[in-house]
Structures are given as structure tokens and as C-alpha cells.
Design brief:
The structure is a single chain. The protein has 108 residues and is an all-alpha fold. The chain has 2 domains: 67 residues, Arc Repressor Mutant, subunit A (Orthogonal Bundle); 33 residues. It is 81% helix and 0% strand. The chain has 6 helices and no strands. Helix 5 runs antiparallel to helix 6.
Length: 108
Amino acid sequence: MQDRIKINSYLDFYESLLTDKQRQICSMYYREDLSLQEIADIEGTSRAAVHDLLKRTKNELSRFESHLHMVESYRKRMQYYTQIMEAGNSEINNLIQKCIDTEGGSYE
């Protein structure tokens, strides 16, 4: 389960760097929770081909994160925002909430 969450967070940040095929297959597997066989049937390919594509894409997403650190940076910013809000006053908390709102999703 943790692996799915991690890959979904990578997809949120790096999906646009993938090919159309990679995006489509990853969306079906990680977001729609389809099985390898279901995806293979839809795509008209083998289960092994879907598995291989997912494995390569997962490695590619991990490589993107290891170089760009966007997910890690996002998580750290969210932690800092929380700490500031706990220590700050209402004006600061309002400004921090505006920063958080510009960040988008939640990857804890």
C-alpha cells in the first residue's frame, strides 16, 4: 500500500514527463486499481508486457524523484508550514494557509 501511495505522489509531480502509454497504463493500475490482466485485455497485450512497462515506469519515476526531489521538497514544506502555524499568530497562519492552498494535494 505504501508503494502505491508513493508512486501516486510521483505521478502527481512527474506524470507529464512520461509517454502517453506510460501515463495511461499507470493511471489504470495505480489510480483506477485495475489488475494487470484487466489492463492487458483493454490494451490488447500480454500481462507480462503491462508488468514490464509498469516496472520500467516505476523505476523512471523513482529516478526523476532522486534527481529533482519535488515530492520530498513538497513534504518538507508542508511540515514547515504546520510548524509555523502551530507557533504563529492568526495573521501568519492566514498567510501560511494561502501558501498551502497554492501547493495542491496532500502527500503525507
